[in-house]
DNA sequence: CGACCGTTTGATAAATGTCAATTCTAGTGG
DNA sequence: CCACTAGAATTGACATTTATCAAACGGTCG
């Protein structure tokens, strides 16, 4: 419905995620091989990209937009287990079926490869395999970081942790740095935040109101956030204000 | 203190984790190269193997015993973010400092490699790099599975989930299968279970008592557990009794 | 025997969830 | 341009779960 840019003839060399995605380490010649087998797909906000249990016949990278990985229990309880940002990789070489739902949280563009050709290429291209290992290890660290949030933090700390992650990512994209106020738009609904944090949407709403009342954040509308003091926000998150390690 | 078997001259070919560890895919000649640089280290229950933030100068595999990865907040709240069983890998090639504490939960033997030689060997041995990627992806899946437990399950479901994981692992080691009663010893104190599940030890204790009262498990002493009906336990864990995917 | 550690159990408090009513906001069609 | 509507978000009252604090138990090791 929404008019999306047609990207099917973009060159890898111009790609916005060229230096961070699974292809980051590739030599020009290797990039050429990827270029031949890649194709773009666009998804609208809310669309499910992959259903848990489905056969995965492609893998790919998020080029723009945000996707989420979610698990659902039989009674409907859901937990988001990952947030996929531009350059993040979807799919697992060597695995047949998807272990979680992958849902487009915003409008989304992905750079895809059919699974088999990608696996073949990876088998003979250590630069790709090596980069994928590196990215997977980073994701594992992030997942474990998140386990601390889910297991031990209070609702207020959980909200502060999530805002702090989004704020840091945003600061790193816009290269504005972490000193001075940070301004960004929340890419998630209250319900999506609740699913990420293991809370109800009412608790999310209350804690956001509380952080606002206490001056930790300012809100314009529901989604537009200003963080006047990043150090303060990180204190609220229960993190060491200096020792942040993920960028 | 405790008299531990001296393993320093064991052969890789006899190694109990030969087929599951990072060396699983190695050819005999590659194994020989590992053999040259490997060395064994033993740790007693309770000992901290690596402190968070410390420089990592080795990597390695758990040969026997159990270790845990834990994160600690400034105020002392701790969350276990991983349980390392025999064949699991510790350490990250390409990273200088340890992101979490690694603690020996039981007496432990590890097969270690100094980091630099291992990295060099890995760089020229795709079988190792490939196996490490595979293992890391499995760990990522396990971490995400655990995020659902931490974020959305009740205390009772959390306990049942933990017991079910230990029971399945045990059944797979002893090759007794999942039909019929399963018997095992808990390798964790109540406090360690609490740290893993994001609960207090009191809540752990109460829920174990409740599961016992309801006949889901039997206890002899504090640690020796019998699960008369694995399907029942998995129901209590909130998992689909048939669709378990991790073994 | 006595001290200690891990564990259990009880009473109570605090945090978060649940249910329900409103408010806000963006978009739609008259 | 302006109601009208649907979805998102907020807020309130109350219920439930889990944490906290405290006491006591049981086995093990000196």
TrEMBL record, chains A, B:
Residues 22-139 form the Cyclic nucleotide-binding domain. The keyword Transcription applies. Keywords: DNA-binding, Transcription, Transcription regulation. It holds the Pfam family HTH_Crp_2. One of its GO terms (cellular component) is cytosol. Residues 153-231 form the HTH crp-type domain. The keyword Transcription regulation applies. CDD domains: CAP_ED, HTH_CRP. PROSITE patterns: CNMP_BINDING_3 (PS50042), HTH_CRP_1 (PS00042), HTH_CRP_2 (PS51063). GO terms for molecular function: DNA binding; DNA-binding transcription factor activity. This is CRP/FNR family transcriptional regulator, anaerobic regulatory protein. It comes from Ruegeria marina. The lineage of its organism: Bacteria, Pseudomonadati, Pseudomonadota, Alphaproteobacteria, Rhodobacterales.
């Amino acid at each position: 419905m929404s008019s999306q840019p047609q990207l099917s003839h973009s060159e890898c060399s111009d790609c916005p995620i060229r230096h961070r995605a699974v292809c980051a380490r590739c030599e020009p010649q290797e990039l050429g091989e990827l270029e031949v087998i890649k194709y773009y797909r666009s998804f609208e906000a809310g669309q499910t990209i992959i259903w848990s249990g489905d056969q995965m016949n492609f893998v790919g990278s998020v080029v723009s937009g945000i996707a989420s990985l979610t698990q659902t229990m039989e009674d409907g309880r859901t937990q988001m287990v990952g947030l996929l940002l531009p350059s993040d990789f979807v799919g697992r070489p060597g695995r047949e079926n998807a272990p979680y739902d992958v849902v487009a949280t915003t409008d989304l563009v992905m750079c895809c490869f059919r699974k088999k050709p990608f696996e073949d290429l990876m088998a003979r291209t250590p630069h790709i395999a090596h980069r994928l290992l590196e990215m997977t290890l980073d994701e594992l660290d992030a997942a474990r970081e998140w386990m601390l949030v889910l297991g031990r933090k209070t609702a207020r700390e959980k909200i502060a942790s999530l805002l702090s992650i989004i704020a840091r990512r945003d600061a790193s994209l816009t290269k504005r740095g972490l000193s001075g106020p940070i301004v960004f738009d929340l890419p998630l609904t209250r319900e999506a935040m609740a699913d990420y944090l293991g809370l109800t949407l009412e608790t999310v709403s209350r804690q956001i109101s509380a952080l606002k009342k206490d001056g930790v954040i300012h809100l314009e509308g529901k989604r537009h956030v200003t963080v006047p003091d990043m150090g303060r926000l990180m204190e609220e998150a229960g993190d060491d204000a200096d020792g942040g390690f993920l960028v």
